[in-house]
Write a structure and sequence with these properties.
heterodimer, A: alpha/beta, OB fold (Dihydrolipoamide Acetyltransferase, E2P), Rossmann fold, five-stranded mixed barrel, five-stranded parallel β-sheet, 21% strand, B: mainly alpha, 3 helices, rod-shaped
C-alpha cells in the first residue's frame, strides 16, 4: 500500500507546491499590508515581508517583473497583487509580486491634485472660454504613447471615418519619471506645427486640433496628466486640445483644463474626425435645397410676369405694346437664367454622383438610416409631402417595407 | 492669410440655403446667393475629397528635429 511507503520530503514539498499553484484562489491575490525587511539584492530580485497586526507573509519581486514605486521603504503601507507560491528549497510560503503600489503615495498625490485644481480655478484657467473644434480638421496632431494600443485604435478609427485626414503622431513616454517632460515637449511640437511659417516650410496645413492622452492604467500610470506642467501646457495651446486619458471613469486635471474631455482615446477621434459620408450627404442635401429654392423663385417670378403681360394686353391704352415687348424680353431673360441654373446644377450633380457612387446612398442605409419613397418612387424629404393614411415604402439597405402614416408632426421652422 | 475655414463656409452655406428656401428676395439677389452658394459647395466638396491623408508617425526626438529643420529654412 502507498501509505506504508514514506514520501521523500522534496517530492512532498513539490506536490504541495503544485496543489497550491493550481488553486485559482491563490492567483492574483490583492493584499494590503505594511512593508518590513525590504531588501533589494544585487541579483535584481527584491525580498520583503508584508505584515499587519494579524499576521505576515514573505514576498518576492523578481527582477524586472513589476515597477517598484520610488522611495519605497519599511513601514510603508502598500497594495500588492501577487500569486501564492512555495519555495521548495526552504519549504517557505511566499507571495510572488506582480504589482505593488504605495497607498500613502496615492493619498499624497490626490492631495496635490486637489491643490493644483484649486489654484487653477483661482487663476481662472478652469473657467476660461474653450475653443471650439474645427468642423473639418486640416491637420490633427496626436500626442500619445509611442506604439501604444491606444494609438493603434485611434489611427484605425480615424482612417475609417475620414481617410483624407492629415495626421501627425508624436510618440512620447506617458508614464514614469520622464512622462511629464515628454508630454510637454510633444505639446510644444504641436504648437510649432500650428505656426503658419513652420507649417508652410514643412508643406503641411497648420495643426488645428490636438489629441493628448493615453490608454487605461493604474492611477499612478496616469498621473502625469494630473501634473501642473502638463495642465499649463494644454491650457496655453493656441488650437483646441482634446484630453483623452484612460477610461470613462478616470478624470484628470488635463481633462478639466482641455477644450474638450474625451472619455477614451477612441472617443477623442469620434469628437474631432468627421464621418466623411455624413459630410458629403449633408452637402448634397444643401445643394438640393438650394437649387429647389432658387428654381421656385424663378417660377414665381415667371408666373407673375405672365399675369402682368396678360393684364397689359387686355388694357386698351397706348404705349402698352412697348411694355409688353419689354416684359417679353424680361421673360426670355428669366428663362435663360433658369436654364443656366439648371445646367449648372446638372453638371455638378454628375460630378457629385461620381464622387458619391461608392458611398451613397446604400452605405448611408447600411448605417441604420432608411429612406421613405411614395407610390411614384419619389423620395420623401419633408413631412409636408405626406398625408394622413398614405402608404409609403421604407427602403432599407437589404429590402423595403410598407408603412402607413398615422400622425404627422412638423417641427416649427427655425428662423 | 485670411482663409475662410471649412466651418465658416459651412455656416454661410446653411444661411444661404435657408434664405433661398424662405424666398421673397428679388431675382438678382436670388441669383447672387445661388452663385455664392454654388462656390461654397464646390469649395467644401473639394476640401473633403482633396485632403491628402498623409500620416506621419514620429517619435518625440524625430518630431523635434523636424521642427528645428523647418525653422532653419
Amino acid at each position: 500500500m502507498d501509505e506504508i511507503e514514506p514520501t521523500p520530503v522534496g517530492k512532498f514539498v513539490q506536490a504541495l507546491r503544485t496543489r497550491l499553484r493550481s488553486d485559482d484562489r491563490n492567483q492574483h491575490c490583492l493584499l494590503r499590508g505594511e512593508i518590513s525587511q525590504w531588501k533589494p539584492y544585487a541579483s535584481g530580485h527584491t525580498y520583503f515581508s508584508l505584515r499587519d497586526d494579524g499576521g505576515q507573509i514573505n514576498a518576492v519581486i523578481w527582477k524586472g517583473r513589476c515597477r517598484i514605486p520610488d522611495g519605497i521603504k519599511d513601514g510603508q503601507e502598500v497594495l500588492i497583487i501577487g500569486n501564492v507560491d512555495l519555495y521548495p528549497a526552504r519549504g517557505q510560503l511566499q507571495i510572488v509580486v506582480e504589482r505593488i503600489e504605495l497607498i500613502q503615495k496615492i493619498g499624497a498625490l490626490e492631495q496635490q491634485k486637489q491643490k493644483l485644481l484649486l489654484q487653477l480655478r483661482q487663476e481662472g484657467v478652469l473657467d476660461r472660454p474653450r475653443k471650439s473644434l474645427p468642423a473639418l480638421p486640416k491637420h490633427l496632431v496626436i500626442v500619445t504613447g509611442k506604439n501604444s494600443a491606444a494609438l493603434a485604435d485611434m489611427l484605425q478609427l480615424s482612417q475609417s471615418r475620414w481617410p483624407g485626414i492629415r495626421t501627425t503622431v508624436i510618440g512620447v513616454t506617458v508614464q514614469g519619471d520622464r512622462a511629464v517632460e515628454e508630454i510637454v515637449r510633444g505639446l510644444s511640437v504641436a504648437r510649432e506645427l500650428s505656426r503658419t511659417n513652420i507649417a508652410d516650410s514643412l508643406e503641411v496645413p497648420p495643426c488645428d486640433v490636438v489629441i493628448v492622452g493615453r490608454g487605461g492604467g493604474s492611477p499612478e500610470d496616469l498621473w502625469a496628466f494630473n501634473l501642473e506642467a502638463v495642465a499649463r501646457s494644454i491650457a496655453a495651446m493656441p488650437m483646441p486640445v482634446i484630453s483623452a486619458v484612460g477610461h470613462e471613469s478616470d478624470i484628470l486635471v488635463s481633462d478639466l483644463v482641455a477644450d474638450l474631455r474625451a472619455s477614451t482615446p477612441s472617443h477623442a477621434v469620434e469628437c474631432c474626425v468627421p464621418l466623411i459620408d455624413d459630410q458629403l450627404a449633408f452637402l448634397v442635401d444643401c445643394e438640393d435645397r438650394m437649387v429647389l429654392g432658387t428654381l421656385r423663385q424663378f417660377n414665381d417670378a415667371q408666373s407673375q410676369l405672365q399675369q402682368l403681360k396678360l393684364r397689359l394686353q387686355l388694357a386698351p391704352s397706348k404705349g402698352v405694346s412697348h411694355a409688353v415687348r419689354q416684359l417679353e424680353r424680361l421673360g426670355n431673360d428669366l428663362h435663360q437664367r433658369t436654364a443656366t441654373v439648371l445646367q449648372h446644377h446638372k453638371q455638378r450633380l454628375a460630378v457629385l454622383a461620381n464622387a458619391l457612387q461608392i458611398s451613397h446612398p446604400k452605405r448611408v442605409l447600411e448605417r441604420g438610416y432608411m429612406m421613405g419613397v411614395d407610390h411614384e418612387g419619389k423620395v420623401i424629404s419633408s413631412v409636408a409631402e405626406l398625408n394622413k393614411g398614405q402608404t409609403l415604402s421604407l427602403q432599407f439597405a437589404d429590402g423595403e417595407a410598407d408603412a402607413n402614416i398615422d400622425n404627422i408632426r412638423q417641427h416649427e421652422e427655425e428662423t | 492669410m485670411t482663409k475662410e475655414t471649412y466651418s465658416d463656409a459651412l455656416r454661410r452655406l446653411e444661411a444661404i440655403v435657408a434664405e433661398l428656401e424662405r424666398g421673397g428676395m428679388d431675382l438678382e439677389a436670388t441669383l447672387e446667393r445661388f452663385e455664392e452658394g454654388s462656390k461654397l459647395l464646390e469649395r467644401c466638396q473639394s476640401e473633403l475629397k482633396e485632403a491628402e491623408g498623409r500620416l506621419e508617425n514620429l517619435r518625440l526626438p524625430e518630431a523635434e528635429a523636424m521642427i528645428d529643420e523647418a525653422k532653419k529654412e
